[in-house]
Design a protein that fits this description.
396 residues; alpha+beta; Thrombin, subunit H; six-stranded antiparallel beta barrel; globular
Length: 396
């Protein structure tokens, strides 16, 4: 087969071949230089990641820590000692050997107690519970920085379970910011501070579980208090310490905890009440509580109807809501006003009375010696009576 000589390439084909050759050489050069580029990156080392603005704004501590820090310098521990009398035994009944070993059984012993408190005045005034310093012969206050000073009880009001203790004036003493307990709502944050079981600077968190919880419903008939209920842990030793809100303002003074079945509920005295009582005690005055001299039970229309249907019922009751008089104390303002057992108080000071607690509120808001108008249902009649509250007598 005869050989065909190669045909000369056209100028266009030659141009295309030249462009392809140039591209191939460029690709080869870039591939051969890749290791050097990689080495230069490795030599530089890993580059730090830029911190995002969102991460920079995350707070280091919670609102609880901030609130506790604001008031923590004003929280103190209170240690007390009191004399407790021992009952004397008939020496004739005591074995001589036991008398030699233990000495005379008559006399007194020392009882120690512990609680908490909060500084309410940088001049040296501490607010606590009356039961913390009750009958105390010795009061020792441990400040937040660990210093220990002697304290003296300025005054105490057992009815509201509040007391004021004075300590020496110290330049660096901090007073706690006091809030407004009337502004509270159920569900608000509640933070309890104090020294439970002697463990100082303890903080627990919860919420306001209920407001205006009457202390009489908890079995304390000798107190007059509407309490703040909280599930923040309050334990022995927390008594007298502050309950604060999320901003670090004191909203209450811790006073008791529910033990036994249903435990886990704590109660605090509203700071608005505590502030008023403390103002009277700090001036050396006595807190005066008006009283009528009545023992009352709640009555509802339904309960009255059930009673009236009973053929063995001792007394027919008015089928209305109110505070039913169970007993009138002798020589009391109630007896002088003509109140009787079986009367139903339905209004006081032109305000409706739904239960004994609402009547007590009207009485507490009245003044000793001023007339307090009452609307009373007696049998089928409705009476208008006026009663003059007297000062609540101190227990013997």
């Amino acid at each position: 087969m005869p050989l065909v000589p190669p045909q000369p390439l056209s100028p266009l084909v030659r141009a295309r071949q030249s462009v392809l050759a140039i591209l191939a050489s460029m690709l080869l050069i870039s591939v051969t230089t890749l290791p050097a580029v990689a080495l230069s990156v490795e030599a530089a080392g890993p580059q730090p990641l830029a911190e995002s603005p969102a991460l920079q704004q995350v707070p280091t501590h919670s609102f609880v820590a901030q609130a506790a820090r604001r008031v923590g310098g004003a929280v103190v521990r209170i240690d007390t000692e009191r004399s407790v009398s021992r009952e004397a035994f008939d020496p004739a009944l005591l074995d001589p050997l036991l008398r030699d070993l233990f000495g005379d059984p008559a006399g007194s012993s020392r009882e120690r107690g512990q609680g908490s408190g909060v500084v309410i005045d940088s001049g040296g005034l501490v607010l606590t519970n009356a039961h913390v310093v009750d009958r105390a012969d010795l009061v020792e206050v441990t400040l937040a920085d660990g210093r220990q000073v002697d304290g003296s009880v300025v005054g105490a009001d057992p009815v509201t379970d509040l007391a004021v203790v004075r300590i020496p004036q110290i330049s660096s003493l901090e007073a706690a910011p006091l809030g407004d307990s009337e502004a509270l709502e159920v569900g608000d944050w509640a933070i309890a501070l104090g020294s439970p079981y002697g463990l100082e600077r303890t903080v627990t968190l919860g919420i306001v579980s209920s407001l205006h919880r009457n202390i009489n419903s908890l079995g304390f008939s000798d107190k007059r208090l509407d309490l703040i209920q909280t599930d923040a842990a309050i334990n022995p030793g927390n008594s007298g310490g502050p309950l604060i809100n999320a901003a670090g303002d004191v909203i209450g003074i811790n006073t008791l905890v529910r033990s036994g079945p249903g435990a886990g509920l704590g109660f605090a005295i509203p700071i608005n009440l505590a502030r008023g009582v403390a103002d009277q005690l700090r001036q050396g005055g006595e807190v005066v509580h008006p009283y009528l001299g009545l023992q009352l039970v709640p009555l509802t229309a339904r309960r009255a109807r059930n009673n009236n249907r009973d053929p063995d019922a001792v007394l027919q009751l008015p089928e209305r809501d109110g505070a039913l008089v169970q007993r009138v104390l002798p020589d009391s303002p109630a007896e002088l006003a003509g109140l009787r057992r079986g009367d139903l108080v339905v209004a006081a000071a032109d305000q409706p009375v739904r239960d004994p607690a609402s009547l007590l509120q009207r009485v507490e808001a009245s003044r000793v010696g001023d007339m307090l108008p009452l609307k009373v249902v007696r049998g089928a009649r409705e009476l208008q009576l006026s009663i003059k509250p007297a000062a609540l007598p101190h227990p013997a």
